[in-house]
Amino acid sequence: MPLITLILLPFIGSFLAAVLPANARNTESTVAGLIALFCTVQAALYFPQIADGGVLRQEIEWLPALGLNLVIRMDGFAWMFCMLVLGIGTLVVLYARYYMSPADPVPRFFSFFLAFMGAMAGVVLAGNIIQLAFFWELTSLFSFLLIGYWHHRRDARRGARMALTVTGTGGLCMLGGMLVIGHIVGSYDLDHVLAAGAQVRNHPLYLTALVLVLLGAFTKSAQFPFHFWLPNAMAAPTPVSAYLHSATMVKAGVFLLARLWPVMGGTEPWFWLVGGAGLATLLIGGYAAMFQNDLKGLLAYSTISHLGLITLLLGLNSPLAAVAAVFHIMNHATFKASLFMAAGIVDHESGTRDIRRLSGLRSMMPVTATLAMVASAAMAGVPLLNGFLSKEMFFAETVFLDTTPVVGVVLPIAATLAGMFSVAYSLRFTVDVFCGPPATDLPHTPHEPPHWMRVPVELLVLMCLVVGMLPAWSIGRFLDAAARPVVGGELPAFSLAVWHGFNTPFIMSLLALVGGMVLYLALRALRAAGQVDAPPLIHHIPGRRLFDGALALITQMGRSGRRLLSTQRLQWQMLWLVCAALAAGAMP
Fold this sequence. Notes:
The protein contains 26 helices and two strands.
């Protein structure tokens, strides 16, 4: 079956879901689920053809005079992302069937959801960098519709506008960067671009292309200083949050960084720009997550932190660090999707996501509590879970990186500190919510959700356990296939063994675990004494204030321009249009 069906089928399903009657929730979810499942199975069947470095390619003539054809291209890295986009999408559809209320406009939800899935599949399967930019902007558009799904809520409308403004503007910058790369290479075809790494890096326009591309990647993946939009997107329904912030929307930025790693990586500007943004995001996101009182807010800032970790790994200019980044993309998608769904179950069954009101849910929701605790432990990097393996690879890269003495000291300390933050906010997610005396003032009496609503969480948590205990057997071949295109075709030597001995990275893991527990207990004591509520210093980070100020300035300039140029006389309006057209035509 042609590769393009992986993109077309979700869009066809989006149209079908839109025309179904509003009261046909079972039909709509079944249609969406079957399409997502069919695409997942189809993508999985391609693995033998790409496992050892193979590339599948389908080309459709589009604008040959401009050197632009519609190219669908799948290598191991694109295959891995397809499995995340389509596989987790299937699980989220099943979860959404029970989460969404019959009073909600469900056809609109599944229509937007499938369209977003198709757009994201278009990004990862694009074999042409202009085509990639086109689907990139489609993901911004459909995420805007999903985040603002409950458009009667002011926070949903505001969060959707902010996400679209930031990621859409970054996408336009990225398009400019793609045009510069195409100019340097002489082609927009991805195969030609990937083969021209030295040519791109040695060109005088390299830095221009790099900055423009990074603006697109950083805004999409919520890297500092553009991280502020992602927590505001939490006004979306939880199935949307679980999907956008684990396997799709925010992963598009790190996908782009990894995809262009062989082309633009390996230079000093890449190291400082990508590594610096990743390090700042890693620490800021983890620090802010510890102080969140909303379950989804905590997960949003933890997502920012983990995206910073992946970005930092890609910025280290090390093939082994790039492999670790690909591994953590896979691991993060599984435990973060399960945690968002668990948070949605808590909200759905108790009526609140406020951590300050939740307590002792383990006695009322024992299965959900167990699943959430295991997924949180994976996020914290506890041994025998998948998060521990990729995080230990991260620690190893910060220790053994060949760099300046100052960076060689700062990076391991920062990595260990970020690990402590991760343990602290993971404990806040589990201990404060599921342990202690049962809460008595909740809007609803908590109980276990319907069994099929919990199945997606169970499957994802099972993957966390299997990969954590049997990594080489369960994920080794898939990781090899996914990482090979990122590092240029030749994999560095690495081991997925659970135990590598009592070495420096393991000591860092122990320090992170113990230090995180101490930090959690200290913050809990301060919180009980009423001495800490909001994260100190976070509000002084300028990203959000700069965005609000720029938006206000643009709005004011627009109003001033309208007052200056507008008139009720048609003749003057026509004169302005004609003059503008003549001026444009006179330009060389």
